[in-house]
């Protein structure tokens, strides 16, 4: 077995409202920076490290085996917060060639079949470190089930403030790991999350603020996607990701920025954040020049990324990388989902947003000088319509069967 | 990227009815050995290799990266049939520590979230090699969807002879990859499969015979599980797997037997095949001393491994390894499933059969002199009851929520 490659070098929490402001690493401040946040904008915190102590060879030595515990997130332990919660083999997902310089990072290959496992390994580790009796999470699907799995593995209780409108298969998923699943109307989720945190001491692994700050350690888990892409491919010209709050987008950006800072690479990719056109707080913030926005949201099948509140993290990733915020329609999402399935990757509708964004830019004539990675975040099993339509029997004769097969 | 580690060393198809009998490698003979099979027993074929040409370091050199294409099945290309179909990053699944010497091999981390992807990469490769216009498969779930994914990736058509009783979420899964899904009564599946093969030239990746022979290349894909376990852990004392036809059980056994033959290891594990008590052709064959059996099957929630026909492969794995065939009840399966979920692994009921078998043996006082691996074959999303019960809203007040959390 591969052990972790060294202790965490995390030193402090740095304000994204003013990078000159730092707070101790512990406790994590889930409500963001107390000094720079305003009634309009909550500024997140992120983790700083003793980068100068990064072990030589961290980014060049291959893992001892491809499959052992330690080949996923643990491999990058020096540049993550302490991994005190036991893992489930998260990370180490494949990068699939799709031709013409396009690569799909298939995050459905994580322990609960979405990218959220990278965040929850790190955030639940913070709960273990703090000695919390449980964790609390607001989620309509992937995030809640992932948090429940890591809580179960760590022996912590888990409260999931869910939506009663979760797709039926996702309802089974949310319940699978023994969490207390509490479906409440969406406007009650954050107030109750705050109360569970304040009164019971449950560690929050979801956002507690008006614009999104989230768990200050969460995006760190997503950095490992950048490290893996770099190990497999080098630095791509562009990375397209689905965006709900933008933690994934920011985490991948931060990982590549660290590789440049450490002298491992010379370049960074342009980051493209892809939101459902029904909402789009990131696109609104970038267009209007504010640090983060809250927007009305309309209906979309991409329920997993249908967020009213944006985050300053996502804005930073787009602006600092020279990227862009893209709004994709449900029709564009469905086209991208079909393209993935036609190559053997069944992705949730939301998970196809990265590829939908790339196809939109390509149709507008944009070309990239190098490989492009689209992150497909989650399995098709989490989709809204999954399980809605049973199979219809066909007549069990050669005539009927051959008619279908000769279409 | 890691390239495959060398060309295939496959030489021929060897009869499991008489190992002195060999056939050319091409075409694959899906109806088993034409010379040794009898009306009672169809003897499978398996693949033989020029073992003496195995590249030095195949089992000791680490992969170049943990995540690149080539880190999964391609790494073992010399000891697999030619991998002519494009991959989806199958294999390379994590081995999770569960304490007390128990390890769970989480096969839900494959491209379509079950172990079947290892078989289908290899079997669909044979279809590509043969220039077949499509593939044909009889399956109620995992095998059919996996075959459809690999066929889509390879640009082949795919006919899935399914059951109209597939769980609703599995119905969506089967349709996801664009296959022709043909739900017919079970007694029509094999006759129609034979017709599709004979009349349209579709390559069969399912069984065509009375006792199971299956695709002669299929079990080869499962060997890679043994190679991965060896790389991560060495040779365990015992391996417990779910058994439907027993291709998985045999494949893992063959992989360990090859490691011993090549001088890489000195020992092999005992192989325990775990079947639903509602059927159990393997247990029947072992108990009565026949090469393979067909038994009546009763109802079970473990629909994915509820097989009437057994195979000689599975019998060989049990007898040659000094293992055993175990019958597990649905209650034992549910207990094992709950134990997995309590550690963050949501497995399909059938997928928990390996752990159910181990717990049965442990309760009977059996102890193993070394680590034990249970293979968990598939994601909980494929379960019978998934999606059957929506979430029931709770009153969105602190009083109601705290009452639940303080239980």
Kindly describe this structure:
Chains A, B: It comes from Streptomyces katrae. The structure is a homodimer of 407-residue chains. Chain A has 407 residues and is α/β, with parallel strands linked by helices. The first copy, chain A, has 2 domains: 1-112 and 211-407, Rossmann fold (3-Layer(aba) Sandwich); 116-204, Rossmann fold, CATH 3.40.50. Chain A is 32% helix and 15% strand. In chain A, strand 1 and strand 2 (22-24) form a beta hairpin. The longest helix of chain A is centred in the middle third of the chain and has 16 residues, at 218-233. The radius of gyration of chain A is 21 Å and the shape is globular. Chains A and B meet through strand 4, helix 2, strand 7, helix 3 and strand 8 of A and strand 4, helix 2, strand 7, helix 3 and strand 8 of B.
Q: Could you outline the blueprint of secondary structure elements for this entry?
A:
Two copies of one chain form a homodimer.
Chain A lengths: L9 E6 L6 E3 L20 E5 L45 E3 L4 E5 L9 H15 L3 E5 L3 H13 L2 E6 L5 H8 L4 E4 L2 H15 L2 E2 L13 H16 L4 E5 L4 H15 L8 E7 L4 H8 L23 H10 L2 E5 L1 H12 L11 H11 L8 E5 L21 H8 L2
Parallel strand pairs in A: 5-13, 6-7, 6-9, 7-8, 10-11, 10-13, 11-12
Antiparallel strand pairs in A: 1-2, 1-3, 4-5
Helix pairs in contact in A: 1-2, 1-5, 2-3, 5-6, 6-8, 9-10
Class based on secondary structure composition and strand pairing of chain A: alpha/beta
Could you tell me how far the N terminus lies from the C terminus of chain A, measured between alpha carbons in angstroms? 52 Å
* Structure annotation, total helices of chain A: 11
The best one-word shape of chain A is: globular
Mean pLDDT of chain A: 95
Radius of gyration of chain A: 21 Å
Q: Count of DSSP E strands of chain A?
A: 13
Proportion of strand residues of chain A: 5-15%
Largest sheet of chain A: 6 strands, mixed
Order of helices and strands of chain A: EEEEEHEHEHEHEHEHEHHEHHEH
Helix-residue proportion of chain A: 25-40%
Q: Largest interface by residue count? A: A-B, 92 and 92 residues
Q: Which CATH top level class of the largest domain in chain A fits?
A: Alpha Beta
CATH fold title of the largest domain in chain A = Rossmann fold
Q: How many structural domains can be distinguished in the coordinates of chain A?
A: 2
Cofactor (chains A, B): pyridoxal 5'-phosphate
Keywords (chains A, B): Lyase, Pyridoxal phosphate
Pfam family, one (chains A, B): PALP
Protein name (chains A, B): Pyridoxal-phosphate dependent enzyme
